Structure formats: C-alpha cells, structure tokens
Amino acid sequence: MELIIKLLANTISVFVFGYILPGIQVRSFGSSLLIAILLALMNAFVQSVVILFNLPVTIYTIAVSILVSNTFIVLLGDLFMDGIKAKTSGWAVLFSLLLMLVNVLFFYFQFFI
Fold first, then answer.
1. How many domains does the chain divide into?
2. What confidence tens digit (pLDDT) does each residue in 78-92 have?
3. Where are the beta strands (DSSP E) in the chain?
4. DSSP string, 10-30
5. What is this structure's pTM?
C-alpha cells in the first residue's frame, strides 16, 4: 500500500511540476503515471547500483550525485518517452530537485503518520 501511495504522490508531483515549470512539458496524467513508474523502476535498479559504487562520493557531496543520477533518469525519460519533454538539461535538474524535495518530505512525514 505504501508503494502505491508513494507512486501516486510522485505521479501527482510529475504532473504538477510539468504544468508549473515552463521548461518541462508533460502531456497528460497518464503520461505522468508512466514517467513516475519509469523513474521508480530506474531508481530501484540503476540508482541503487550508482549509489553503491558512489557511496563515498555521495556522502561527501551531500546527495549531489543522487541529483545528477535523477537528472540523468529524467533526460532518459525525455529521450525514450513521448509523454515528457525537457527543453534543456537545466530544467531537468530543477525538475529532479523538486521531485527529490517531494520524496524527502514524503519520507519525513511518513514517520509521523
């Protein structure tokens, strides 16, 4: 159940940030759901390996490498999916930063529920 709630929160975040940010275009709520699933799958498999190999770098840079890998995942989603379009990599970084913030807040408030 927790996974579904987190996926729904990410889907809503992708949809809202795609609507708010002029450099990110998300076509529909269905596209944002597919993007959220893609990000979750890529985070589960790719980012886990990246974090494992970059753990010392992650500790020293205070999660900047996680931000870079999330940006890379968003740009891969832009490349392989029709539902999202990032105008520049700077918009992808901002989009990734906002998604990270939502996930951190979700994780933080999860302990109080």
1. 1
2. 888 888 899 999 999
3. 24-26, 84-86
4. HHHHHHHHHHH-TTEEE--HH
5. 0.79
